[in-house]
Write a structure and sequence with these properties.
The model has no long low-confidence stretch (mean pLDDT about 95). It is globular and about 70 Å long. It contains 17 helices and 16 strands. The termini are far apart. α5 runs parallel beside α6. The strands form 3 sheets. Strands 1, 2, 3, 4, 5, 14, 15 and 16 form an 8-stranded mixed β-sheet that branches. The chain has a 4-stranded parallel β-sheet with strand order 6-7-8-9. By secondary structure, the chain is of the alpha/beta class. Bound molecules: zinc ion. Zinc ion (ZN) binds next to loops.
Length: about 450
């Protein structure tokens, strides 16, 4: 089945924008882009749909999610990072497997509604994998491991290997690959770092980890201080264990165990100095920058321009509604751009375009998926979104990049398509009753109060 979608602007991202353009999708693939009249003549069989005053662009690549934490929206608001984390640990104990799945489904639904077609999710539970498959998302689900007791690491790794094998079986035939995720330096003792790095290298698994996100993490790893050394460890059940401060930063801690000799997606990287950026760049570590989460939890602002200057692969992540309440991907672009300007006190060249690129092709490159998604190009999978630009605050539409970054929000998404399949269209998700997805999360939210 061929579709011809036309719109005011086609934004391929890998190539210049096309005004009054169209895109032809055949089954799961993009076959052509160009002027509408020309494509209509070349593909007379295609079913035509004109989106009028809108922008057709690649689906967003959300480089960091925790789908199952969607039900935590607003539950631990306005706390600094470590206290927020401790609250989350305590509240999590009230939930069972069915609750996590209901919450993950809500997250996957909100991703599709927000124009996100690819995710990189970290979770110790299979709920996220199941939800991502049900809602037709692409990407990675990373099996999360946390352990500070070196005597328990062997069993954590053995359990991880069993789970990863099971998850790979579940993901088979879908668009999701499985990776592994030691939670981050504050929750992974040296043997866990070393053994997961060795495992990933041996089995060719991609790794994602939280890294250098907060000042508390930095102080805990280097000096053994901060609230992460106290009530956080008690909440995780590690209060009785001795923690020998590493005397080095979180980046250098992972470096010394060969962690970066792998395909690594590091999340946050806010507290990194020039030398550490060089270390990350040298090892081709990709970064998931989560501007809204970092700001809301008071963690800081990542040195994005320095990452770019170092030639690193960087994309954007929403993290989760537990930390920043919404999966509105436009927020990430807008807030990300504004925080860089505030931090650097300068305006970079074509910055709105750079953020749209980071949100799409940049994220795809960070995941090694640039041959299948991230831009609109013949031969790539039809992962695309249609963004409505008819509202008064979006007029005039002079530059499509500026319009997307400065005036759009998730309510403007008309259509989300993944591999040629409609994931969301004009307010609804095919074959899924969105009201029932929301209703199933309500009792979960009651438990969390
Ligand atoms: Zn996270």
């Amino acid at each position: 089945m061929q579709h011809l979608f036309s719109a005011k602007w086609i934004l391929p991202v890998g190539a210049p924008p096309i005004k009054e353009g169209a895109i032809v999708v055949d089954d799961s693939k993009i076959v052509a882009l160009g002027e509408t009249d020309d494509l209509a003549a070349r593909y007379p069989q295609a079913e035509c749909r004109d989106f009028g005053r809108s922008i057709i662009m690649p689906g967003f690549v959300d480089l960091h999610t925790h789908l199952e934490y969607t039900a935590f929206r607003g539950v631990c608001d306005d706390l600094p990072y470590t206290q927020w984390k401790i609250q989350q640990i305590h509240k999590s104990r009230a939930l069972d497997e069915a609750d996590w799945l209901a919450s993950a489904r809500l997250g996957a639904m909100e991703a599709a509604q927000s124009g996100i077609t690819t995710i990189a999710d970290i979770s110790p539970r299979s709920a996220n994998l199941r939800a991502a498959i049900e809602f037709g998302l692409r990407g990675f689900v990373f099996y999360e491991m946390a352990e500070m007791d070196r005597n328990k690491v062997d069993s954590v790794i053995a359990e991880g290997q069993r789970s990863v094998a099971e998850w790979q079986e579940t993901a088979h035939g879908h668009k999701i690959e499985i990776g592994i995720a030691p939670m981050g330096p504050q929750a992974a003792c040296p043997p866990l770092i070393k053994q997961s790095a060795d495992w990933a290298r041996r089995d060719g698994l991609k790794i994602s980890t939280h890294l250098a996100g907060s000042k508390d993490e930095y102080d805990f790893i280097k000096h053994g201080s901060s609230e992460l050394a106290g009530s956080y460890r008690d909440a995780m059940g590690w209060g009785h264990l001795l923690w020998q401060p590493m005397g080095v930063s979180p980046v250098r801690y992972l470096l010394q165990w060969g962690f970066f000799d792998n395909d690594v997606l590091a999340v946050h990287c806010v507290h990194v100095d020039e030398d550490e950026i060089y270390i990350l760049a040298e090892h081709d570590v990709a970064v998931a920058h989560c501007p809204k989460c970092s700001a809301k939890l008071g963690m800081g602002t990542a040195p994005l321009r320095e990452f770019e200057r170092a030639g690193m692969r960087v994309g954007l992540g929403t993290d989760s509604p537990a930390s920043q309440n919404m999966m509105d991907y436009f927020d990430e672009m807008r807030i990300g751009l504004l925080f860089q300007r505030g931090k650097n006190q300068t305006i970079a060249n074509a910055e709105a375009e750079a953020f749209v690129r980071m949100a799409t092709l940049g994220g795809a490159k960070a995941l090694g998926l640039e041959d299948v998604t991230g831009s609109l190009e013949p031969g790539k999978d039809a992962d695309l979104v249609v963004v409505d630009m008819t509202r008064s605050h979006q007029r005039p539409l002079l530059d499509p990049y500026s319009a997307l970054v400065y005036t759009a929000n998730q309510e403007n998404i008309i259509l989300t398509m993944g591999s040629g399949k409609i994931l969301y269209d004009s307010g609804s998700i095919p074959d899924i009753d969105d009201e029932s997805v929301i209703a199933q999360v309500e009792p979960v939210q009651m438990k969390l109060r």
